[in-house]
Each structure stands twice: as C-alpha cells, then as structure tokens.
Specification:
The chain is of the alpha/beta class. The protein folds into 3 domains: about 10-65, Nucleic acid-binding proteins (OB fold (Dihydrolipoamide Acetyltransferase, E2P), Beta Barrel); about 105-125 and about 280-450, Rossmann fold, CATH 3.40.50; about 135-270, Beta Barrel (OB fold (Dihydrolipoamide Acetyltransferase, E2P)), CATH 2.40.50. About 25% of the residues lie in helices and about 30% in strands. It is built from 9 helices and 21 strands. Strands 8-7-6-9-10-11-12 form a 7-stranded mixed beta sheet, with helices on one face. Strands 17-16-15-18-19-21-20 form a 7-stranded mixed beta sheet, sandwiched between helices. A 5-stranded mixed beta barrel has the order 1-2-3-5-4. Helix 1 crosses helix 9 (about 410-420). The longest helix is centred in the N-terminal third of the chain and has 19 residues, at about 90-110. The radius of gyration is 24 Å and the shape is globular. The relative contact order is 0.10.
Length: about 450
C-alpha cells in the first residue's frame, strides 16, 4: 500500500494502542502511524517525520485530549536517553498495556483461537524503581567534566545523564564519585569521532544488599593514569578491559584484568550463591528474577522425581533454582564462558546432581535420548530470535510431557507457539514485568503434551 502521508504532513489521530517498542500507534485511513509518547485514547495532532513503505512515524505537535493515565515522568531525561519508554504512564496502566501487548502479538502471529488462551495479568513490582543492578554507559567529556550517557532512541546521539531512577542507589552514588575523580584527575576520555583518548565505558555492578561494588573501566588503549585512578577507588572489585575495536558491538575486550580487590562480587537468588565477574551474565532485576523463578517452579509442580533439561541455560541459575526438588538437572548453552561459570556455581552450591553441557541444544537432546535420558520437563529460555526451527521440528516428533517456555520477545514467542501447538496444549501464559518503566515484557508459558493433557485449571 502506497503511503498517503508524507513527511511534514500534519494529521489528527486517536492513539489506539502501544506498540512493542513503547510507541503509541494510531491509524490514518488504515495506515499505521507510530507516535513516540502517545498513549491509548489520546487525541493528538501529529507531524509526520518519517515515511516508510508500510507505515509512517510522527511526533506530537499538540495534545487535543490527554489520557487520564498520563503522569509526569520522574526522570528529567525521559524521551531523551532512550532507556525508558513508559514513564509517562501510571504503573497500573503500564501493566494493563503490557497484557494488551501480549494479546496483540498473539492476534497477529498465532493461528489458534486466542479466546481459548489463558493469559494472566502481569506480575508487577510494589516499588517499580531503583531495580537495575548493573550500569554500562559510554564515557564522554562535557566541557571540563567527565560524564556518561545513553544513546537516544533511533540515533547515535548521546544524552548525558547524572542519575537514573531505575538503577539502584548504590550504583548512582558510586558513579557520582567515579566521575568526579575522573574529572579532577583529567583522565583521558575516548572520542569516537577522532578515535583518540582512553576511557570508553564505565561499567558498575552492585546488588545493594551485599554492599559490594564492582567497577570496570573499558579502555581503548592501556592508560596508566586511568588505571591509577581505578586503583584508588574505594570499591571491592576494580577491573579494566581493553577494547580497541571501534566497530565492536561488545563492550568488553577479550580479557578483563582485576587490579585491586576481588575479581568478582557475590550475588544471591534465595538459597543460591553466585560469584559474578564483570562479564558474567546475571539478571538485572534481582527481585523480579525471584518472582520469575518461582513461577517457573510452580509450573514444574516438582515431586523430587523429575528429570529437567534447562535449555539456553546461561550461568545455569534456573536449573539450579529448581534442583533441590528435582531428581536430576542438565543445562545446555552454546556460551562456553557461561557453562564454565555454571559448573563452578553448581559446585559452590553443592548441587552434585546438576550438570552442564556446552553446545547447541538439539544435538545434546538427541544424544541424551539415545542414552536413555528423557526429560520430564524441558525449560526453554531462548534469545530474542526464539527457537531454531530444527529444534521445533524435533520437539514435535519427540514430544516431552511438559515444556516451560520463558520468553523476552512476544513476536517470536507467538510464532514458536503457533508451531508447537500442534503437539502441545498451551496451559497458560503468565506475563512478568521484569523491567518497569520500559516496554519489555517477559512471559512464562506452560505447555503440556496433548497426549497427556487434562482440562485441569491452574491457579496462581
């Protein structure tokens, strides 16, 4: 369909819903118009700024009718830094819209009867602020001051920030001290335009409750003054890494060097203890991670006899969380470093019946099956791209009694479930708000073999 709207056109729109990236969506003669900051029910005057083949993008020039759920954002950098998308919407309404996002994704990509799906209300936070336990931000000069920032939405422009209301307070205090010290000592700061300077990124991690702070300088080149300043900081884990590839999408270089203190800090998930290095993956919202893992455990309905496979296991935290109530747990991931960490953590937590394997999931599933290990429960927590089609075909031919699918991408979730529904019944979908103030939605989906399916209703 040829665009009816062109750049600089001004139209009056009613915002119908929120898209997966947090933008408001309205329609002009059936043409989708994406409007940053628009909320459902609002009537807005919009100037078109970008015209694509199947949709257009616009900005609000005048608010004709505001949503009763619109609030004043807490953060002064809202809509500048690109980190949050929904701070202008009351939190109760954020949760409602996130459920609508689930429904919209299934309406678009799922061929079954959506009315027969059980989709619960999202599980939110009592205090939806100060939850992030890690900050990884580019460093720049702003006059004589050293600052950090976040990239604005759809651009490479850096919006400088001094505080972030979704980070925990320990990180904010540590960053303030570090930036002051960097400015005072006139440390060399990297300039991406000239490719000169040393310090590129400042990475800070703290879990608040342990009162430990891990700081890592990511340098473009080795710099004695930057390392001296790093050593002088009053924190428990001080590290640096050199990444001299300006085009790299990774923050860290190949090696991380601890210059003072421990090379790790301690993280906890209830009864489990983890030693977290600067590059190790750990969930960013510890409180909601426990909510997520408890939902996975409830879906498992463990009796102590179950054999579990934890697919895409990362550092193995889901499988280890369930291990005390399972017969055996096997985790699989193609990230070698993550698997090595998982093995260490299993040993540290005295979980002798938990084992980890490096590689892709499908070959291991096939090998396990050949050797007589058939899981009672398969947990899948894939990346945003979803499940590999060959894995889906295997699961359709080799039906497992129970699958628990954890997803961070509603589109690929709905597409994958559309295939899996041929052999599996979708018992329910439980959204979880892992990242309040943003448009991200996490889900736990319980699937059971259609052969074993009963019409039992699950209540949580």
């Amino acid at each position: 369909m040829k665009n009816q709207l062109q750049v600089q056109d001004v139209v009056l729109l009613t915002i119908k819903r929120i898209g997966i990236n947090g933008e408001g969506i309205g329609f002009y003669k059936r043409q989708a118009v994406f409007v940053d900051g628009g909320l459902p029910g609002e009537i807005v005057e919009v100037r078109i700024t970008e015209a694509k083949e199947s949709y257009v993008v616009g900005t609000i020039t005048k608010m004709k009718k505001a949503s009763p759920d619109r609030i004043e954002p807490v953060c002064p950098y809202f809509q500048k830094c690109g980190g949050c998308q929904l701070q202008h919407l009351s939190y109760s309404s954020q949760l409602k819209e996130k459920k609508n996002m689930v429904l919209e994704a299934f309406d678009r990509y799922y061929d079954g009867d959506i009315k027969k799906l059980t989709i619960y209300d999202p599980l939110g936070m009592q205090h939806p602020w100060n939850y992030r336990n890690k900050s990884s931000l580019p460093v720049r000069h702003d006059g004589s001051q050293v600052v950090v920032g976040m990239y604005s939405k759809h651009s490479n422009h850096l919006a400088f920030i001094s505080k972030c209301p979704i980070e925990n307070e320990t990180i904010e205090k540590a960053r303030t001290l570090i930036l002051s010290r960097l400015s005072k000592e006139n440390v060399s700061i990297y300039n991406p335009k000239t490719k000169q300077g040393a310090l590129r990124y400042l990475v800070i991690r703290s879990f608040n409750v342990q009162d430990e702070v891990q700081v890592t300088f990511v340098l473009y080149r080795e710099d004695k003054k930057a390392i001296q300043v790093l050593k002088s900081l009053p924190f428990s884990s001080l590290n640096y890494s050199i990444n001299n590839d300006p085009k790299s999408i990774e923050i860290f270089g190949k090696e991380v060097i601890c210059v003072k203190g421990n090379a790790y800090i301690e993280g906890n998930l209830n009864h489990l203890t983890f030693k977290i290095s600067p590059t190790a993956f750990f969930q960013l919202n510890t409180k909601q991670t426990l909510v997520l893992y408890e939902q996975i455990k409830k879906a498992c309905e463990l009796t102590g006899k179950e054999k579990i496979i934890d697919g895409y296991c990362g550092i193995g935290s889901i499988g280890m969380y369930l291990a005390s109530e399972a017969s055996e747990v096997r985790g699989i991931d193609n990230n070698q470093e993550g698997i090595e960490d998982a093995k260490k953590f299993a040993k540290m937590n005295h979980l002798n019946h938990v084992h980890f394997y490096h590689g892709n999931i499908l070959p291991h599933l096939q090998q396990f099956q050949e050797k007589g290990f058939i899981p009672d429960i398969l947990i899948l927590d894939p990346p945003r791209t979803g499940l590999d089609i060959n894995l889906i075909h295997y699961l359709q031919k080799n039906v497992i009694s129970k699958i628990i699918y954890v997803s961070c991408n509603l589109s690929t979730l709905a597409k994958n479930l559309n295939h899996l529904q041929r052999q599996y019944y979708i018992q329910y979908i439980q959204p979880i708000d892992m990242f309040p103030q943003t448009s991200h939605v996490e889900t736990v989906v319980l699937l059971s073999s259609r052969k074993n399916h009963s019409k039992e209703v699950y209540h949580f």
